[in-house]
């Protein structure tokens, strides 16, 4: 093996974050186990450890779920409580899996896992077809604006690998998904247990002409998932070295959350509304010709204007929306329900404000997507449309336009817990 | 790859820098826990990048077990000088002497677990409200469910069932008086990512990571280096082998692997074909199925 070549390839890989959702017994753990195993991401000592534990608990087979159930309580109760992150790589891509439990009471975990994902895998048992949980998972993927969805029809071996079974499930899902906001949907018949169409093509399902799951994961087009049009640079921190060498240096540290910034570009900062030009884009490795998402850089500007943490730098011809009345879809993450008229701390990009809950418009039935207008109690795992008023204006985009400048969290001011996840409409 | 597509390693770098800047802005007194190991070396480089051209705006702190590889300590001091950072060292030995910690019973006690006491005392002494660690989620399964911002109560404990949900890139560092956070900017990195980053950035690392001749004893398939902290048990003998270490830590529980990898390129090849996790060679993790979870709950790194 030529190492320099290997290193070069490794450094050229891109990154796909995906989430897996499924209900109990649909083979999700087996599927992840197979992806990890076939891509050599499971090590011998991990395998030996789960073999030992499987024997002790008398499972009779090597239980791949033990790989993902990391906490003692989970192993004892045989359930997954929390989002677990897994990693594997092929020569093309590095993958981060957010493995989330599928029970209804874990909507908050699904939302958490989905919030950073480019792609969602939704598993269906071929014998059961589309069930309530399938719809719920797909709805959450759509709500969280995951751009790509793969519907894996699993356990095809138990329905004799019949094409009709797969086609029927596909049609059913197509009918349902027309109500969703996901454009790129893939359908794959698999058997995670036997390995059909996961990494290797299935012989018994030679009728299936599409790619295997790994092929889709490796090739789905994610380069355009970042917003490269609407330039947004929330300022995290002001960099002032005050050293002899950089005596007058004043730079703005942050991560590009949208668009492309270049030296010489006209900019406007909010909330001040001052305009200026970008002087340079600085990093320890040297000045850059341009910065794009999700790069962390330091920007210097031509004029000496007051910019601080929580401010945003945009382009004069393409500005954020601004205001104090924020309309959003909210997922509630805490046992203590949302208090109508209640006050919460709110974090949006690098900005901290407070807000008051002005109106709960409706709650969503996450299985049918119907609006429930007569029950407005938003409790743990509920999703609803709410309106808040903030103490200071936010400079934001709709979540559909930009996931990072369109998202926010609500924090309980007494316990400091993160209690709500909001997507601005 | 298209022009506006950042490679995975650059995305991970950017994520870690973003997190370090959030911590420096959200907290009053952060500290970077530094062991001289490869992950903390990567952390120091990321911290330099996050605040450049300003200096790293927080000190580094080493919780010293006294059971160190000499090479690591001299390397640590050099790096600190190079970077121009402030280094704080607190010793497990002092915690034992003052009666705060009790040395484990038996032959060759490990001080790995005792670090927790010294660490929590130091956090209180300096009133640190956030401590950066280099831990990664791929290291161990209890770590796979760890947050970037990991909340610790006033006893420094981790409650795995009551973690704050972490969505998008919004990190909630709000806390009550006396509480603190552990922050793990390398959460999404793998062992391979760390090695590739060391190669990409041309970072120096302590010599014990490279293949060398060492007198070792094989104890329950963990190869321990000969040192004054190790006493032979009945039937054990020392032998000389060509080895290297995949992690640095307390000499009483950090095992070597037999290896000829004497360059970064060879290490990368070895990691690529490795079939044992890096913590697989650590005696402290083999104590029980939930060894890491238990130590983390008590306030371990």
Automatic annotation (TrEMBL), chain A:
Any GO molecular function: sulfate adenylyltransferase (ATP) activity
Keyword Nucleotide-binding listed? The answer is: yes
Q: What is its EC number?
A: 2.7.7.4
InterPro entries xref list: CysN_GTP-bd, CysN_II, CysN_NoDQ_III, G_TR_CS, GTP-eEF1A_C, P-loop_NTPase, SO4_adenylTrfase_lsu, T_Tr_GTP-bd_dom
Which residue ranges does the record assign to the Tr-type G domain? 13-229
Coiled-coil intervals in this record?
A: none
Q: Which Gene3D superfamilies match?
A: P-loop containing nucleotide triphosphate hydrolases (3.40.50.300), Translation factors (2.40.30.10)
List keywords of the entry alphabetically: ATP-binding, GTP-binding, Nucleotide-binding, Nucleotidyltransferase, Transferase
Which CDD domains does the record cross-reference, listed alphabetically? CysN_ATPS, CysN_NodQ_II, CysN_NoDQ_III
PANTHER family named among the record's database cross-references? TRANSLATION FACTOR (PTHR23115)
Q: Report the protein name in the record.
A: sulfate adenylyltransferase
From TrEMBL, chain B:
Cross-referenced InterPro entries, in alphabetical order? PAPS_reduct_dom, Rossmann-like_a/b/a_fold, SO4_adenylTrfase_ssu, Sulfate_adenylyltrnsfr_sub2
| Gene Ontology molecular functions | sulfate adenylyltransferase (ATP) activity
The segment(s) forming the Phosphoadenosine phosphosulphate reductase domain are 30-255
- List residues traversing the bilayer: none
- Identify the enzyme class: transferase
Region annotation (Disordered) ranges: 278-301
Q: Which UniProt keywords apply?
A: ATP-binding, Nucleotide-binding, Nucleotidyltransferase, Transferase
Entry EC number(s)? 2.7.7.4
Top-rank lineage group of the source organism: Bacteria
**What NCBIfam families is this protein classified in?**
CysD (TIGR02039), PRK05253.1 (NF003587), PRK12563.1 (NF009214)
Give the protein family. Answer: Belongs to the PAPS reductase family. CysD subfamily.
Name of this chain's protein: Sulfate adenylyltransferase subunit 2
**Which lineage is the organism of this entry classified under, starting from the top rank?**
Bacteria, Pseudomonadati, Bacteroidota, Cytophagia, Cytophagales
Q: Which gene encodes it?
A: cysD
């Amino acid at each position: 093996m030529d190492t320099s070549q290997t290193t070069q390839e490794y450094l050229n890989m891109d990154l796909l974050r995906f989430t897996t959702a499924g209900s109990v017994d649909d083979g999700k753990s087996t599927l992840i186990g197979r992806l990890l195993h076939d891509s050599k991401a499971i090590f011998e000592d991990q395998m030996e450890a789960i073999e030992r534990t499987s024997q002790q608990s008398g499972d009779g087979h090597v239980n791949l779920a033990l790989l993902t159930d990391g906490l003692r309580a989970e192993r004892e109760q045989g359930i997954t409580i929390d989002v677990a992150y897994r990693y594997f790589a092929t020569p093309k891509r590095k993958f981060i899996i957010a493995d989330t439990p599928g029970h209804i009471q874990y909507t908050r975990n699904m939302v958490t896992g989905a919030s950073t994902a480019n792609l969602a895998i939704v598993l269906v048992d071929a014998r059961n077809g589309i069930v309530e949980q399938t719809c719920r998972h797909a709805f959450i993927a759509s709500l969280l604006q995951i751009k790509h969805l793969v519907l894996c029809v699993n356990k095809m071996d138990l329905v004799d690998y019949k094409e009709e079974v797969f086609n029927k499930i596909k049609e059913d899902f197509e009918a349902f998904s027309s109500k969703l906001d996901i454009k790129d949907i893939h359908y794959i018949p698999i058997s995670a247990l036997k390995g059909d169409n996961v990494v290797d093509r299935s012989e018994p399902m030679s009728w299936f002409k599409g790619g295997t799951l790994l092929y889709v994961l490796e090739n789905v087009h994610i380069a355009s998932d970042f917003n490269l049009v609407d330039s947004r640079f929330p300022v995290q921190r002001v960099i002032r070295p005050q050293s002899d060498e950089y005596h007058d240096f004043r730079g703005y540290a942050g991560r590009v959350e949208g668009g492309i910034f270049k030296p010489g570009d006209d900019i406007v900062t909010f909330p001040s509304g001052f305009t200026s030009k970008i002087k340079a884009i600085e990093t320890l490795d040297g000045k850059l010709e341009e910065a794009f998402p999700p790069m962390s850089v330091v920007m210097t500007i031509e004029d000496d204007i007051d910019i601080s943490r929580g401010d945003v730098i945009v382009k004069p011809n393409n500005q954020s929306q601004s205001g104090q009345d924020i309309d959003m879809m909210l997922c509630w993450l805490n046992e203590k329900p949302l208090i109508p008229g209640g006050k919460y701390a709110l974090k949006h990009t690098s900005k901290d404000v407070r807000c008051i809950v002005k109106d709960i418009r409706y709650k969503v039935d996450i299985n049918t997507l119907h609006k429930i207008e007569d029950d407005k109690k938003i409790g743990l795992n509920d999703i609803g449309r709410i309106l808040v008023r903030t103490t200071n204006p936010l400079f934001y985009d709709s979540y559909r336009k930009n996931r990072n400048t369109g998202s926010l969290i609500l924090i309980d001011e007494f316990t400091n817990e993160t209690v709500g996840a909001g997507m601005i409409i | 790859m298209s022009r506006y597509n950042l490679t995975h390693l650059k995305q991970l770098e950017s994520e870690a820098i973003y997190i370090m800047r959030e911590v420096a802005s959200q907290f009053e007194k952060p500290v970077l826990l530094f062991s001289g190991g490869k992950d903390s070396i990567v952390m120091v480089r990321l911290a330099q990048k996050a605040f450049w051209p300003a200096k790293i705006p927080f000190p580094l702190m080493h919780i010293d077990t006294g059971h160190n590889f000499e090479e690591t300590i001299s390397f640590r001091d050099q790096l600190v000088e190079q970077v121009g950072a402030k280094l704080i060292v607190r010793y497990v030995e002092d915690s034992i002497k003052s009666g705060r910690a009790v040395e484990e019973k038996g032959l060759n006690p490990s001080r790995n677990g005792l670090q927790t006491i010294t660490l929590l005392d130091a956090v209180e002494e300096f009133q640190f409200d956030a401590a950066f660690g280099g831990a990664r989620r791929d290291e161990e399964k209890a770590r796979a469910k760890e947050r970037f911002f990991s909340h610790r109560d006033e006893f420094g404990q981790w409650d795995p069932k009551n973690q704050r949900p972490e969505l998008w890139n919004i990190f909630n560092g709000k806390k009550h008086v006396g509480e603190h956070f552990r922050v793990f900017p390398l959460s999404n990195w793998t062992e391979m990512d760390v090695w590739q980053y060391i190669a990409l950035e041309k970072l120096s690392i302590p010599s014990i990571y490279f293949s060398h001749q060492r007198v070792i004893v094989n104890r329950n398939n963990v190869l321990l280096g000969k040192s004054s902290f190790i006493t032979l048990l009945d039937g054990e003998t020392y032998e000389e082998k060509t080895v290297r270490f995949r992690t640095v830590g307390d000499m009483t529980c950090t095992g070597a692997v037999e290896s000829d990898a004497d360059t970064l390129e060879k290490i990368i090849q070895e990691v690529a074909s490795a079939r044992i996790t890096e913590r697989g060679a650590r005696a402290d993790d083999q104590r029980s199925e939930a060894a890491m979870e238990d130590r983390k709950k008590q306030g371990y790194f």
